[in-house]
Amino acid sequence: MPTPTPAWYRGTTPDEHRGRLAGGSAVRNVGPVIEVHGLTGRYGGVSAVRNVSFRLGPGGLHGIVGPAGAGKSTMLRLMVGLDRAASGRCLFDGRSYRDLAYPLREVGILLAPPPAHPGRTGRDHLRILARTHGIPDRRTDEVLEMTGLADVARLRAGVYSSGLRQRLGLAGALLGDPPALLLDDPAAGLDPDGVAWLRALLRTLAREGRAVLVTGRLTGELAGDIDRLVILGRGRVLADAPAAEVISRNTVPAVRVRPDRPDDLEKLLRGHGAAVALRPDGRLEITGLTSADVAGLAVRAGILLIENAPVHASLEDVYLALARGR
Ligand SMILES: Nc1ncnc2c1ncn2[C@@H]1O[C@H](COP(=O)(O)OP(=O)(O)OP(=O)(O)O)[C@@H](O)[C@H]1O
Q1: Sheet holding 228-233, edge to edge
Q2: How far does residue 49's CA lie from ligand 1's centre (Å)?
Q3: Class of the CATH domain delimited by 252-323
Q4: Given ligand 1 and candidates 39, 42, 43, which is best to mutate, with the most ligand atoms within 8 Å of its CB?
Q5: Is the beta carbon of 48 within 6 A of some atom in ligand 1?
Q6: Ligand 1 atom with minimal separation from the 70 CA
Q7: Burial degree of 23 (CB within 10 A; 0-12, 13-18, 19+)
């Protein structure tokens, strides 16, 4: 049976679409607009996700971050209907996941733990998945290459390490060459080389114009590349904006210095209205004065500054602070 062309291919045949995605330069934002409207998900009587709304895309690298138990995984499961929403909905270019005729070709998903029959080889697992969507075997070989699994493709998935299982899950998400990807903690189980590889892959996929939504640790390392960031805390949206904006809006500017006489500098700066914290390593962390103010006061008092640098909050600092209600 011929495979229909999803609306997102925007007037191209699947092969043309693939060629354009692979070429990278000509196409921007082929991914769908992802709209989440008032999603609520409950386990028993407890709401894991409460009335969450946001809009992403089209295309780009997006992150959902938050402390453990914030509702990130539940959010992704609700978005694709794997958990039943108590209310609300998620639309991919206006359609819910269950209404997609060929979901593998439209929204690739990775939700932990990646499922694979332990007695099947990685290659067979992907081939069986591919056949449900009329995807040719050569695409299976391509994604095995892309995910670094070509050498272990003929081993049973049951003997795969956690990192290999994670790569197999990613290969499954990529199989249909979808313009949207929802990846729950894709770095889980990967070693540092694997994480570096994954970061490069995600950047490439987003640069090709796909909508890539990731949750978990990796988003912290990727903060600079992320277009839009949704921060969840206890199932609610605490922030939803471009990553750089979320960080700058929720960070009090601070300066960190290492003086030769910390006690004297601390006293001096407090006298000028700054809030000063003396760290165990002898550095002072200062808010209320700029780096130049601190340098000027130190010079006039004959105090040597061995270091003087603005402090940049990490994404993790920001969402933990937001979740604590600061
Ligand atoms: N199957 C389940 N049954 C009951 N409660 C659940 C279930 N799955 C998740 N929860 C609860 O729902 C809340 C949100 O969990 P979820 O796994 O979505 O958070 P998360 O942000 O993905 O956390 P983590 O970063 O630890 O993976 C938590 O309080 C969790 O205990």
Answers
A1: 107-110, 180-183, 211-215, 60-65, 228-233, 236-241
A2: 9
A3: alpha beta
A4: 43
A5: yes
A6: 21
A7: exposed
72 in ligand 1 pocket by Cβ < 6 Å? Answer: yes
> Residue 5 and residue 106: Cα distance in Å, rounded?
10
Per-residue pLDDT of 256-271, as tens digits, reads 999 999 999 999 999 9
Question: Which pTM was predicted?
Answer: 0.81
Whether residue 70 has its Cβ less than 6 Å from ligand 1: yes
- For residue 112, the ligand 1 atom closest to its alpha carbon is 27
Task: Name the residue of 52, 74, 232, 316 to mutate for ligand 1: max ligand atoms within 8 A of Cβ.
Answer: 74
What pLDDT digit, counting tens, does each position of 105-161 carry? 999 999 976 678 889 999 999 999 999 989 999 999 999 999 999 999 999 999 999
In the chain, residues under CATH classification 3.40.50.300 are: 7-248
Query: Looking at the predicted structure, is the pLDDT value of residue 244 above 90?
Result: no
**Any atom of ligand 1 within 6 Å of the Cβ of 66:** yes
Asked if 241 contacts 254 with a C-beta cutoff of 8 angstroms, the reply is: no
219 lines ligand 1 (CB under 6 A): no
| Predicted pLDDT of residue 220 | 64
Token code pair at residue 22: 């692979």
What would the DSSP string read from start to end of 232-275?
EETTEEEEEE-HHHHHHHT---EEEEEESSHHHHHHHHHHTT-E
- Phi, psi for residue 252 in degrees, rounded to 5: -80, 125
Domain 7-248, classified CATH 1.10.540.10, yes or no: no
